[in-house]
Amino acid sequence: MEEQSVFMRTFGDYPLIRVLNFLIYSRDFDYPITEIAKNAQVNFQTLKKFWPQLEQDRVVISTRKMGGTILYKINENNPVVKKIIELNTFLCWQYAEALEKEQEIIA
Q: Terminus of the chain with fewer CB atoms < 10 Å: N or C?
């Protein structure tokens, strides 16, 4: 079984959190919505239920069209997204520091 990210461990293993987690960690690339569902391990029909809200809130943006397919990525210019990424980075540092302290105690 794949180890969960610190982000998912903190906020829970829910479809929206899985999608945000995938988009945060893959923010240098754009994907069709079907690939986002697949890579986030979320049922496509489930993703379609909350995707319009992510677009409306500008959490995700369309980047280009490839063939007839629209590609999307997380909107790093959105102030809310910036804070989510910042929070994720903070959580990762906290986790790393806790692991380091744990290793010192063991040693």
A: N
CA distance 63 to 35: 15
Local structure of residue 78 (DSSP, 8 states) = S
Amino acid identity at 56: Q
**Adjacent-strand bridge partners of 61:** 73
Mean pLDDT by 10 residues, the chain (107 residues): 82 96 96 97 97 97 96 97 96 88 79
Q: Find the DSSP H helices in 1-107.
A: 6-11, 15-25, 33-40, 44-56, 79-106
H/E run at residue 62: strand 60-66
Determine, yes or no, domain membership for 69: yes
**Is 17 inside a domain boundary?**
yes
CB 15 within 8 A of CB 42: yes
